[in-house]
Amino acid sequence: MEQPQQPAGPAAAPETAREAASAPAPVPAREAAPGAAREGMTEPAREGMTEPAREGMTEPAREGMTEPAREGIAEPAPRPALAAAPGAAPGAGSEPVPGSGKPPLRVGMVGYAFMGAAHSQGWRTAGRVFDLPRRPVLAVLCGRDGAAARAAAERHGWAAVETDWRVLVARDDIDLVDICTPGDSHAEIAVAALAAGKHVLCEKPLANSVAEAETMTRAAEAAYGRGQLAMTGFNYRRVPAVALARRMIADGRLGTLRHVRATYLQDWLADPAFPLTWRLRREHAGSGALGDLGAHIVDLAQHLAGEPLAGVSALTETFVRRRPLPGGPSRGMAAVSASGTGAVTVDDAAVFTGRFASGALASFEATRYATGRKNALRIELNGERGSLAFDLERLNELWFHDATAPGAEAGFRRILVTEPEHPYLDAWWPPGHGLGYEHTFVHQARDLVHAIAAGTRPDPSFADGLQVQRVLAAVEESAEKNSVYTPVAS
Fold it and tell me: Is 334 domain-assigned?
């Protein structure tokens, strides 16, 4: 799920709870992130060291050496500027780096909070786990608060910093723009990046409105004709168990689909004293639990079923109508309150039923008030030949019922999704060694790099993000009309 990020740009609204309490002091363009200490050194900084200094030499080991031995260890060379070697990894020295013989894919990312950290992990790791046709380079991180952006760049391994996303988009040493900001800036950044000749990865939900999502999708279609790709970041598709479920459904293991039921339950807003962060303001977030959590389960339902929802009947509710104003920047799910209160302008929970184009029925629930539930995404699909069930909090498992088996042997059985034959897992650990949430972003980066190299449409595309946006709009329209069945626009 998308978390608070910084849209980064001079025309953006002043910071409230979104990421910084006050406007930052200007910083020079293309400012390089400071070098890390040797024991916590990121790879770009380490690459400037000579080989004797790199061979397993941590500071504690150095301190136990005699002075003559210490003098034989060369100090790290200064980190070169981003433009020092065209196409090379920023900060790279003379030593080769993994994948250095492959063309780079230079990434510029806008936003650096929860989703920025997750995407950084994906880009930083993908080329070191998978054999990719292009080498991801963490080139530039962008955020309006220069000091916070520099700290995030150093922490996550980005080579340089910008404080204006327009400058980032205009740079000729960036191949892909990764958008990890609140939804109110997605459309403007994505359209500008595509117009500038960049590939784009945009976090979900794609936009704050259907109109914005349509504009983004048109821009993506035009860019595809020029060889640029645009992907929507629905990372849960990249859980190996979910990918296995999609494979089994496509292979006909469930037969004709009858039911889909999906829930996404959290509890971080159950306390009415929690402050009015940007996620609770429609002008920034677009919607509440519906867009934040509901977008994920709508996408998963349509992705696994292999068909779109045709219509919905919905209820939404805002349980706490006013909340304390924020007293500073929010950090993930944490924030502090100040004096005064403000109106909550988004939903706290959404419950809706739906019908697929084939006639299969679906039910959905998304809430941030399910006390005791931290990140409980669950989805089950029932067909004429069997059923599949997945629980994100047990994400290395998939449950399967084969309805064609003899009754005496019937029932759900657990598939431990850790075998090399399972999606993505041939590059990871031995069987039985599970993966986690962060690996979905590594798989997302992997898939996008392969799509860019092959020139094929990414999955999910902006068109897929638009379809989800249309479902969310139909849910809101139905709820406003006392749950009347509302077709999803096509």
Answer: yes
- 321: domain CATH number is 3.30.360.10
The pLDDT assigned to 336 comes to 58
Look at residue 31 and tell me if it is in a domain.
Answer: no
CA distances from 468 to 226, 249, 483 (A): 26, 21, 19
pLDDT value at 181 more than 50: yes
Containing domain of residue 422, as a range?
237-442+462-487
Helix, strand and coil percent figures for the chain, each rounded to 5: 35, 20, 45
∠ CA 189-192-196, nearest 5°, is 135
Q: Specify if 357 maps to a domain.
A: yes
Express each pLDDT in 182-221 by its tens digit: 999 999 999 999 999 999 999 999 999 999 999 999 999 9
Q: How many structural domains is the chain composed of?
A: 1
Q: Cβ neighbours of residue 409 under 8 Å, at least 6 residues apart?
A: none
Q: What confidence category does residue 278 fall into, taking pLDDT thresholds of 50, 70 and 90?
A: confident
Give a yes or no: residue 469 inside a domain: yes
Partners of 315 in the beta sheet?
351
Evaluated on CA atoms 442, 448, 453, 454, the torsion sign reads: positive
For residue 117, give the nearest of 438, 376, 460 by alpha carbon. 438
Among 459, 468, 444, 452, which residue's Cα sits nearest to residue 118?
444
Instruction: Tell me the average pLDDT across 152-158.
Output: 98
Rounded to an integer, the average pLDDT of 166-173 is 98
Close Cβ partners of 161 (under 8 Å, ≥ 6 residues apart): 27, 30, 31, 32, 33, 140, 141, 142, 143, 146, 149, 150, 153
Distance, CA of 285 to CA of 185 (rounded, Å): 10
pTM of the full structure: 0.80
Give the pair of three-digit tokens for residue 105.
């894919």
> What is the CB-side half-sphere exposure of residue 106 using CA atoms within 13 A?
22
Instruction: For residues 200 and 3, give the distance between their C-alpha atoms in angstroms, rounded to a whole number.
Output: 19
